[in-house]
Design goal:
With about 230 residues, the chain is mostly beta strands. It contains two helices and 15 strands. Bound molecules: 2-acetamido-2-deoxy-beta-D-glucopyranose (5 copies). It is found in: Membrane.
């Protein structure tokens, strides 16, 4: 399976998303937004984006929920995207789901439309949730049966964010966390967003695109770069 590294200069994000007024938000049809680790069957609407986040329940059966302790001295918020507003991130980062007992733990994201293009975004903030003060946790992410990314967490308070663009081959897209013997896999947020079919033509049924670098050119200070 071939994959390409790519650079996105997301002027398009600014045009598409930042000029939108609150009363005419674009559709969230086919969005899947999981705030991993929140209480079973809970859901809420994000205060900035109004996107509804749900719990893990309907997507995965294994795992243990954790809250990052707000009193934990190690937690001082995400350090990536530090020039942007964090308010919408912090809500989603303070809980996570951890998988101590499984070699392979898969989220089955559905419904999706076969042969439609999606971006899948996974975010990780360790925050010393297990009290072990680990300075190295590594595990792999697979998208369906293909290797996507090694997650390499070395900084307790950093937000690690990975994206991939895939074409759905069936009625679901799986994201699996693979324990490679270098620490317990965990995840803070998992999101799936539909894309127009003519975007990113390099992503097709036989190859996917892994985001290497994304640059948001000239955003307003404090604006949220992602939906
Ligand atoms: C969110 O929770 C409410 C109340 O429990 C429920 O009626 C609704 O179906 C839930 N929405 C989703 C998307 O799970
Ligand atoms: C996390 O905090 C919420 C709100 O205080 C609570 O309802 C939930 O039970 C906590 N979860 C865990 C795993 O401690
Ligand atoms: C966690 O580790 C860091 C560096 O490895 C150290 O400076 C810090 O004191 C440790 N914190 C705790 C609570 O053990
Ligand atoms: C993990 O990240 C650390 C810090 O960036 C780096 O020094 C180390 O080489 C990385 N490990 C692997 C296997 O990529
Ligand atoms: C996907 O794109 C690659 C590179 O352009 C091409 O080699 C491959 O045949 C395409 N696959 C399909 C199913 O079109």
């Amino acid at each position: 399976m071939a994959f390409w590294f790519f650079v996105l200069v997301s002027g398009m994000d600014i045009i598409v998303f930042n000029t939108v007024h609150a009363e005419q938000l674009p559709t969230t049809e086919e969005f899947i937004s999981i705030d991993c680790g929140i209480a079973s069957n809970a859901n809420y609407s994000d205060s900035d984006t109004l996107i509804e986040y749900v719990s893990d329940d309907q997507f995965i059966e294994t795992g243990v929920n954790f809250n990052l302790s707000s009193s934990s001295s190690s937690y001082r918020g995400p350090i990536i995207y530090q020039t942007y507003s964090f308010s919408s991130y912090i809500t989603q980062m303070v809980t996570l789901r951890s998988f101590p007992d499984a070699l392979r733990s898969c989220y089955v994201l559905k419904p999706v439309t076969r042969y439609k293009k999606y971006t899948v975004r996974a975010q990780f903030l360790y925050g010393n949730y297990d009290g072990k003060n680990s300075s190295s946790i590594m595990f792999d992410l697979h998208i369906d049966v293909n290797f996507w990314q090694t997650v390499n967490v070395t900084e307790s308070t950093a937000l690690y964010l990975y994206e991939v663009i895939v074409v759905a081959l069936g009625d679901s897209v799986s994201v699996c966390l693979i324990n490679t013997g270098s620490g317990t896999p965990f995840i803070s947020v998992l999101e799936l967003r539909p894309l127009q079919d003519d975007m990113y033509p390099a992503a097709n049924t036989t190859q996917y695109l892994v985001n290497f670098f994304r640059l948001n050119v000239g955003p307003d200070l404090g604006s949220s770069p992602l939906r």
